[in-house]
Amino acid sequence: MFIIPVGKQVDWRRPPPATLLLILLNVLAFIFIQGDDDRVLGKALAYYQSSALPQLELPYYVAYLKEEKREKIPADAIFQLDKPELQSLLALRMQWDEAFMARLRGGKIIPPNDPAYATWRTQRARFDELIGQLSVERFGFKPAAHKPLTLVSHMFMHGDLGHLFGNMLFLFLVGFMTERVLGARPFLLAYFIAGLCAVELFGAVYPGSTAPLVGASGAIAGLMGLYTLIFGLRKVEFFYSIFFYFDYVRAPAILLLPIWIGNEFYQLFTERYSNVAYVAHIGGLISGALIGAGYRKWMPNRIETSHAEVDRHESFEQEFARGQALLGELKIEQARLIFEKLSQENPDNHELLKQLYQTSKFHPDHPAYHTAAARLMQRAGDDPASVAEAHEIYTEYAKLAKPGPRFTPALLLDLAACFAAMDYLQDAEKLAHYLIKKQPANPALPGVVLAVAKACYRAGKTEKYHGYLKLIARLFPDVKEARVAAELLAN
Q1: Residue 1's pLDDT is what?
Q2: What's the whole-model pTM score?
């Protein structure tokens, strides 16, 4: 069974920094700390195959798998132990089979009175030393060899690329939703506390384990438990898969907690020989839920404010989609009313402004049309795309607006400067001449005229270029632009 909540798309204008940092650290650890493991493992296995260990150990291990673990072992397997591939496979499986290795190291498989004992002990020690150089051995958590560093370092180690990818996918999907509600610092605190609780429960249940526990799944399970309490009775959408059937369902988030915990217990008792640390998952889920309950008590305002913001966003999306649907049905006026209302609540939403402008221009005398056009033109900046859009709106608005366009002097000055900078020369000149007539004392006007002069120079219109420079010197003799114009004329 597979169940994972599906959140809304990430707002990359406000990305989840803590979630992305954790993913980055896991990826960097896999590349730079675990990146040499293939070479280290290859060296260890090459030594194993060249030693007497396969002949001394593997026949006993095959018999152990067949007799005590009831595994179906081919009858001729004992005669194929000279094959390097099989030796490597069995050697690694045996290395982390705690029950068998306890017997082996305890002298119950190859006793001290065995003539081969001295050879076995020396070569086994050398192989253990080589295997011990693997990052999972150095940084994985071993309950039987408790090291404080590994309580944290194990969270950044992974068995292979698939293990890393799966954990990072879950971390991203659950992480950005919980971080959005809590904020980065409370989120990170919960992540590491849940990871520590998960590994400590694992160590308490398997105190004699020597197999290294690696992976972020305990901490991620903590985030999942945290998620169910933070969202509580709020209905969330989640994806589930049972065998070959899968679907999306909306249900209260808190219902996921018993389902997740129950599934982990089921896997724990049915997958006896699995390498998955189900106990750590259970510890993470329970501790994460307890942390979530604490956060609901300590920071209720932040949680409720975040939920309210999400509700407003979802309401906006639904209404915006309804407006677009009405547009598709050519119900222009109904769509305009929706976009106008949304625009009052979300004045900086660019896409919404464009929709309001497009629907309002069917009534070019309506105040909404003048307002939408002005706000869109005010967005002209230093980039060509925004100026091109503003120029397009300006051209259309100047023709359609009734009883006429309602330009403010400040907007005209900004448009003239932007148009000149992006070489919309004809309209830049038109606006400059209008402003010289209507706003001759405006302190921003000399800069606009100088920008128009430079645009003429770039266009190869040298006569106009000199004319505007002389105009600046004549109309605005005491400003810095006049001095610049005099220098340009002199050159």
Answers
A1: 62
A2: 0.69
Percent of the chain at pLDDT > 70 equals 97
Cα–Cα distances (Å) from 248 to 4, 7, 225, 236, in that order, read 10, 12, 20, 10
Region of poorest pLDDT, from 79-88, 106-115, 400-409: 79-88
Vertex 263 angle, CA 258 and 267, to 5°: 150
Reply yes or no on domain 2-29+151-298 having CATH 1.10.10.60: no
Distance CA 460, CA 449 (A): 17
The residue assigned the tokens 């994460």 is 288
Distance CA 145, CA 440 (A): 84
Cα separation, 339 vs 333, whole angstroms = 10
Tokens 């903590």 sit on residue: 222
Q: pLDDT tens digit string along 408-432? A: 999 999 999 999 999 899 999 999 9
459 beta partners: none
Please report the pLDDT score of residue 78 as a whole number. 60
Q: Which CATH code fits 407-491?
A: 1.25.40.10
Q: Whole-angstrom Cα distance, residue 177 to residue 5?
A: 9
Q: What is the 3-state secondary structure (H, E, C) of the chain?
A: CEEEECCCCCCCCCCCHHHHHHHHHHHHHHHHHCCCHHHHHHHHHHHHHHCCHHHHHHHHHHHHHHHCCCCCCCCCHHHHCCCHHHHHHHHHHHHCCHHHHHHHHCCCCCCCCCCCHHHHHHHHHHHHHHHCCCHHHHHCECHHHCCHHHHHHHHHCCCCHHHHHHHHHHHHHHHHHHHHHHCHHHHHHHHHHHHHHHHHHHHHHCCCCCCCECCCHHHHHHHHHHHHHHHCCCEEEEEEEECCEEEEEEEEHHHHHHHHHHHHHHHHHHCCCCCCCHHHHHHHHHHHHHHHHHHHHHCHHHHHHHHHHHHHHHHHHHHHHHHHHHHHCCCHHHHHHHHHHHHHHCCCCHHHHHHHHHHHCCCCCCHHHHHHHHHHHCCCCCCHHHHHHHHHHHHHHHHHCCCCCCCCHHHHHHHHHHHHHCCCHHHHHHHHHHHHHHCCCCCCHHHHHHHHHHHHHHCCCHHHHHHHHHHHHHHCCCCHHHHHHHHHHHC
Over the range 170-192, which residues count as b (16 or more CB within 10 Å of their CB) and which as e?
bbbbbbbbbbbbbbeebbbebbe
Say if residue 9's pLDDT is above 80: no
Strand 245-252 to strand 2-5: parallel, antiparallel, or no bridges (unpaired)?
Answer: unpaired
**Burial grade of 39 (CB within 10 A; 0-12, 13-18, 19 or more):** exposed
Q: Go through the chain and tell me how many residues it has.
A: 491
Q: Report the distance separating Cα 422 and Cα 52, nearest Å.
A: 79
